What we know:
Layout: H1 22-38, E1 65-70, E2 76-78, E3 81-83, H2 86-98, E4 104-109, H3 115-128, E5 133-135
Parallel strand pairs: 1-4, 4-5
Antiparallel strand pairs: 1-2, 2-3
Helix pairs in contact: 2-3
Amino acid sequence: MAMQVGNSGGDEADVMVDINTTPLIDVMLVLLIMFIITIPIQTHAVKMNMPVPSKNQTPPKPPVIIRIDVDFDGTIGWNGEIIPDRATLESRLQQVAAEPDQAEVHLRPNKLVTYKVVAMILASAQRLGVTKIGIVGNEQFL
Length: 142
């Protein structure tokens, strides 16, 4: 009763119904290689128009640096000179703040000094208007 489609014998090979993708992959690889070859090589340089220095221009003078050292016991030094009290420190910071071109203040605290002393110096400098201040010598804290 049932209808038979195809050959009932196993003599013939089965027909393959899948698409052969090997030639498609070969074509894709050839196109990819051609695309890579035709792309221009990018240089890793940024072209900038830098200003040309004039011959009569004087080089800038190096900034004046004031070094404030804080010893482990809280002793404050100003360029190697011991500061006896906070009032003297604030008067010197006020002189620095009054200059039109302020000097750079480099604060070098000792590794063992308490934070209270360093915070007092930074707060005084900020209150008096010293803008160019920074902590240097941080390598010792690593």
